[in-house]
UniProtKB/TrEMBL annotation:
SUPFAM superfamilies: FAD-linked reductases, C-terminal domain (SSF54373), FAD/NAD(P)-binding domain (SSF51905). Keywords: FAD, Flavoprotein. The keyword Flavoprotein applies. This is 4-hydroxybenzoate 3-monooxygenase. The keyword Coiled coil does not apply. Residues 16-356 form the FAD-binding domain.
Amino acid sequence: MTETPASSNSRPPQRFPVVVVGAGPAGLTVGCVLRAAGVDCLVLETGTRESVEQRPRAGVIEEPVVRGLERRGLAGNLLERARRDTACEFRFDGERHPFGYHELTGGHHWVYPQQFLVTDLVREYADVRGGAVRFGVRDVRVHDLDGDRPSVSYLCPESGHRKVVGCDFVAGCDGARGVTRMAVAGRARVARHDYGIGWLALLAQAPPSADRVLFGCHPDGFAGQMPRSPEVTRYYLQCPPGDDPESWPHERVWAELHRRLAAAGAEPLTEGALIEKRVLDMHDYVTEPMAFGRLYLAGDAAHLVAPIAAKGLNLALHDAFALGDAFVERLLRGDEAGLAGYSESRLRQVWDYQEFSQWLSELYHGGATGDPFRAGTALARLRRLFSSPATAAAFAERYLGTAARY
């Protein structure tokens, strides 16, 4: 249920065609698409601009997403500064198994930390394209989503007074715990999958030990290395869900990373200070549909993909492209087809990526379950990846991602 604002009997003093709740990658991209078409919108964000621009999150961006950003004039810094990954490496049975997906497909990944992308998008939206944005707002609420005069209200950080903004549409881009997802609780179907494992997410002030992503499939648990820059490396260690990051001191972390990523002929890991430690409980969810009246959900407000396959940021940006374009078609040309088909078309790709994440999880974690059968099948999958050209090609295509053709 959505609330009716106190001022619902009179037209709110402010009005925008679209109010975007959330200044993450999805929300800012929707805003940039709208401003490029000359459509006014307001972006509301509970965090400060500084905090939004500094949050370290994902960093692997698929080539179709980069091309989507490029077509919308949003990839300038990314194309200049991002590194291109053309191969990854699996380590199992004490051996190195390089996997050159560029050789198979001609494609590659781009590595560009999410906070850099968000900084670019904030600047493009607010400073270059003149988009309206309010940072640091509190107690955001959405109202009358099923009517033809929806609105969003919030507490102004300067005055403490509640402001009401009328609109034609609301874009819910405020994440898993945001108000827009809560607004459809009880109305949406939510499918959830819990992997029963955790990942200790680490950011180390140390150069990567290899110039590629490493996947360590070890009987004691998964380990991963994801280069972020010449000086900073992202690492992951499988751990129990809900584990305390403080139970992983420097010595224990590096001992486990060395052990789980060990392989014949491999360079030893370069250790460094751990500047971030947090435990991620691996789970997925999908909210269906992704549209409710005048509210359209995008990114983590609609679906969460565990970082197992590095698909979350990419799905969020695919959502934003589709939603931003659909808003423009509806508001400027009166064409409702894009908004009418938004939920169904986006959910097809969402479920495709969820299935791949689940398949990949068994590859990574099956050998550490303590179940001999799952360990055997996981090892069979790994061996087939390096013995069957058809399997390798299929994996490379899904690992690299596909354009949204749904």
